[in-house]
Amino acid sequence: MSMLGLGFGLMSPPLSLGVTMGSSLIDGGPLTIMGGYTIVYVCSFFCALSLAEITSKYPTELHSGAALIAHPDYSLICSWFTGFFLLIGNWLTSTSITFAGAQIILSTVGIVDSKYEIDSVLTVIMFYLVVTVCGVINLKFSKYLEFINKLCVYWIVYSILFIDILLLIFSRNHHSLKYVFTHFDNSFSGWPSGMAFIIGFQQANFMLQGFGLLPSVSDEVQDAERTVSRGIVLSVLLAGGAGFIFLIPILAVLPDVNLLIGEKTHGIVPIVLIFKLATRSVIVSFFLVILIIGNLLFSGIGSIATSSRAVFSMSRDGALPFADIWTHVHADSESKVPKNSVMLSMAISYLLGLLALVSSTAFNAFVGAAVISLCAASLIPIVSLLLGARKKVRGAAFKLKYVGFIINIISTLWLAFTIFVLSLPPQLPVTASSMNYASLVFLLFVLIITILWFVWGRHNFHGPLVDKGVSERSDSLPMQTMTSEGYQKLNEPNVSNRENVTSSDIKSTTEAVQMTVQPSYDI
Questions:
Q1: Other C-beta atoms within 10 Å of 371: how many?
Q2: One Pfam family from the UniProt entry (predicted)?
Q3: How far apart are CA 434 and CA 413, in angstroms?
């Protein structure tokens, strides 16, 4: 239930779909939103199945699983790129969630003041406040995270029900189901109708790729080979279904699209304008926005948690300098939280937020690169699995059996296609400010990660340290494995980093499976 709550929070249908609705309204409206959502939902579910099978065989962070699946000659480089794509995706996703939340909070002023225009400086200040609140909860109240994750499921489900019911009750105008599922207006995009429909996939992709963050907490989960795989599959299945329930009433009361997009909205988030125009009630609109702000807090808390664990695991495996700092866990802490990793993730968000002051286009490019990075992180282990004829997942707790090849191939093609779609601008003609620079930012990330490999990674990155009892043999991996004595030392309460483990506790071997490290709470 807690893992499901974390997945729900990271995908958060009301927040994700509400904030990104503007792009799909430009590129066709209801048909694009519902049709595109259906296609993305089905294909994302295939990706979730592929990732769940890998995680059930190697219940660990995704970069470690990538190392264990890839050919021995390429295991370290595959692990390196997977880990950094996932780390960058975590950081950018966390930033996009909290920044979107800041925009929604400030948009509430537009409910009572139709001339209110969101100020970029005030947005960044509010963004800093949201990041700080979510970060402090991770730092000071981590023992309650399991309860928070469980509460998240109920909050999101009831939020969707309240939003839908109140919109249908208070709206004076209702569209037919035919309008909701078939109306297509491509007068705003400038793209041919087919391309506009495809570009509209971006809205659902921003929501449904959140499951890729869940393996980051594998080391803290009891019975991880089953819990994480079930959490990945069920969170996509249920959050995706909840998205349908959320979208249908929204489109049934959809106001004139001209009032929801363009400069005349003054930066107000589309979902807030829909609440205001549909209900024509300040009180009801405020209440509906508060429900989404609650979604924001759950999403922000979860995204910082997964970001910090990605920092912890990559540092532990030698990918980041100053690993002793990022993997340090205070011995006297009630819950073993890597607080420095949490603070680093917060600092990255603070720095990225400054881009919004310099250029909103540059900031949006970095945010758009979040989903591309997560797709790339999932793509590497799935492709490696196919190249190895799926031999490395034999005996997995979650089995795709005879349809595994088909599902893995569909997942590979879909992830590559998603990267292409997310690189397209939503409107034509393209201007310097409307251009989608997400693909260029991603290529910049690839260049930086490659340079880091030659400068730092190939000399310091050793891949996952492993406990021999967790999984089966994986031949010829150029890694190390812990002896039972070393593993016990590493997990003693007074251990803060790997320096406490002596060289005699570690031995070279060709056997490698994932070591379980528990930096904080159990889910």
A1: 27
A2: AA_permease
A3: 28
Beta bridge partners of 44: none
The partner residues of 482 in beta bridges, in order of sequence, read 467, 506
**Domains of the chain in sequence order:** 2-463 (1.20.1740.10), 465-516 (no CATH)
Residue count (the chain): 523
What one-character DSSP code corresponds to residue 472? -
The pLDDT value recorded for residue 462 is 85
Q: Rounded CA gap, 236 and 226, in Å?
A: 16
Distances (CA, A) of 79 to 63, 245, 379: 5, 38, 12
Report whether 218 contacts 523 (CB < 8 A).
no
* Cβ proximity of 309 and 217 under 8 Å: yes
Cβ atoms of 418 and 50 within 8 Å: the answer is no
Give the closest residue to 462 by CA, choosing from 205, 77, 73. Answer: 77
* pLDDT tens digits along 293-327: 988 888 889 889 889 889 998 998 888 888 888 88
What is d(CA 27, CA 48) in angstroms, rounded to the nearest whole number?
27
One-character DSSP codes across 79-90: HHHHHHHHHHHH
C-alpha distance from residue 478 to each of 45, 65, 377, 503 (Å): 33, 14, 21, 17
The predicted pLDDT at position 334 comes to 61
3-state helix, strand, coil in the chain (%, to 5): 70, 0, 25
Rounded Cα–Cα distance for residues 122 and 129 (Å): 11
* Cα separations in angstroms, 293 against 100, 191, 387, 430: 10, 34, 44, 33
Nearest-angstrom CA–CA distance, 439 and 204: 18
> In the structure encoding, which two tokens stand for residue 514, read together?
């994932």
Q: Are 366 and 95 in contact (CB under 8 A)?
A: yes
C-alpha span between 2 and 8 (Å, rounded): 10
pLDDT for 338 beyond 80: yes
339: exposed, middle or buried (C-beta count within 10 Å: 0-12, 13-18, 19+)?
A: buried
Identify the H or E element spanning 298.
helix 282-316
82 to 34, 458, 474: CA distances (angstroms)? 32, 15, 18
Sorted by sequence, the CB contacts under 8 Å of residue 141 that are 6+ apart come out as none
DSSP conformation class of 191:
S
| HEC per residue, 318-348 | CCCCCHHHHCCCCCCCCCCCCHHHHHHHHHH
Longest CA–CA span in the chain (Å) reads: 75
Alpha-carbon dihedral sign for residues 355, 359, 362, 365: positive
Q: What is the CA radius of gyration of the chain?
A: 23
State the Cα–Cα distance between residues 388 and 69, nearest whole angstrom: 8
pTM of whole model > 0.90? no
Distance linking the first and last C-alpha atoms of the chain: 9
Q: What is the mean pLDDT of residues 376-394?
A: 90
Any idea which residue has 């429900």 for tokens? 291
251 in Cβ contact with 175 (< 8 Å): yes
| Structure tokens belonging to residue 322 | 């100053």
